[in-house]
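Before we proceed, please read the two lines closing this message. Let me know whether the structure tokens fit the sequence:

…
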Amino acid sequence: AKMAAAASDLLTGWCLFGLALLAILIFCWVYVRKYQSRRESEVISTITAIFALAVALITSALLPVDIFLVSYMKNQNGTFKIWADANVSRQIEDTVLYGYYTLYSIILFCVFLWIPFVYFYYEEKEDDDGNTCSQVKTALKYTLGFITICAVLLLIGAFVPLDIPNKKNSTEWEKVKLLFEEFGSSHGLTALSFSISSLTVIGMLAAITYTAYGMSALPLNLIKGTTSAAYERLENTEGIEEVEQHLLRIKSKCRDGRPLSSRDRRTLKQLEERLRTLRRRERHLESIEKSWWTKFCEAIRPLKIVWGVFFIIVALLFTVSLFLSNLDKALHSAGFDSGFIILGTNLTNPLNMVLSVLQRVFPLDYILITTIVMYFIFTSMAGIRNMGIWFFWIRLYKIRRGKTRPQALLFLCMILLLIVLHTSYMIYSLAPQYVMYGSQKYLVQICTTPLFSPADFFFFVLCSSILFPFILDQCIVTRTYLFLHKFWFFSAAYYFGNWAFIAVFLIGLIVSCCKGKKSVIEGEVDDDDSDMSDDELSVYYH
């Protein structure tokens, strides 16, 4: 009966997974279709963007699944469930590990082969006269560079030394050695791990740039809202009248047949371009003012403020937890050469405390950890949408509703894939104990007599990494934790990246507070837009 119940739970889990997968695919399709340009949309770029975005979301959902599975194998009193013997536990752990490697292999395929090929294919399509064979050859030639980089990373990873430098505190390193002996030593898996960790460092830089800013910009934009469409129309009308008067003054200089000076011709051209932009703004503002969507947004304005306040509180909670976690590593870890690995927590972490309290009521802790993961993904999307896509100081693309070029969508999805790789370490930094063991407990026996007797009593406590060697057989470590700390030098890079993340978040918070309200058509109308682009945005307002 108990085995049947376990099978029923497993079937329910797969059904929920299927529904979640369907929801992810629907969301990805809606998101991509919402932002892609109608005039420049291509089937291959659309499918690639939807698939890459879906892989990013599915990979991010693997962390809560990993934590749930290691916790589900034990009862609330700290004992293993009947079906969770050593072989079953190992199979479940291996399944999760293979799930990680499968998804990470797909990410490698997307980042180093598929997305670059589609990107360069589309670039050639714009420059070529339509010779498909030539486009494919050129795209493959440029993609070969990415494949070479991937091959180099795999080769380095296959032979990179994993030994942690010797330290005086040999007891601490014995604990670490015990930890990673579980993880296996296959050169193929090590090579894949090294490649993924290298991409995770790039994802860390993307998270510092986009996620940190998005965590401050998203809630403050919800709180401040946008300017009134009617007020902007009034200002825009005044601007049109001013430009038209200026144009008349310049044109009046040549009424008697005299040619305009070169300075006046340049000014005339600039004013005509400015007038076209203002008239496009007028058409957009008129459409928005009459739109039912605008009226709906005005009706739910109080709800947006509530969500904005909630998000800023969550962002501050994350920042405080991240700061305390990093400070704990700085004070109590063995230093840089160990990758700042720390077994146990010495400073109280607010998020760890919240998760410990929620563990008492199933499944509140899993809902919270899933919400945190999704929060990082959506704030990353908000950061990319607000900032656009940059290469150092050069702005490559803008992310605009109904006007985003296919290349920009491919870049967006690649950045999200990289950020998702770093999300697991961010969550570990926020709640290290929970990510390592979930809600597992283990039994502790208190002896009341010199010999074991029925008079002895037992109590159960949460698994703790401080006692790792003593609970090796009683508590199961998540595959996420082992994967994150396989290479000590990457762990050191993540540690310094966390400090940079905190700094960028605080700077973004100050900048977002100082900025005024966004325009109701922020980013929708630019000087380099064509008049035909007005038709694309009208889809959303009528």
The first strand starts at residue 389 and ends at 391. The chain has 18 helices and four strands.
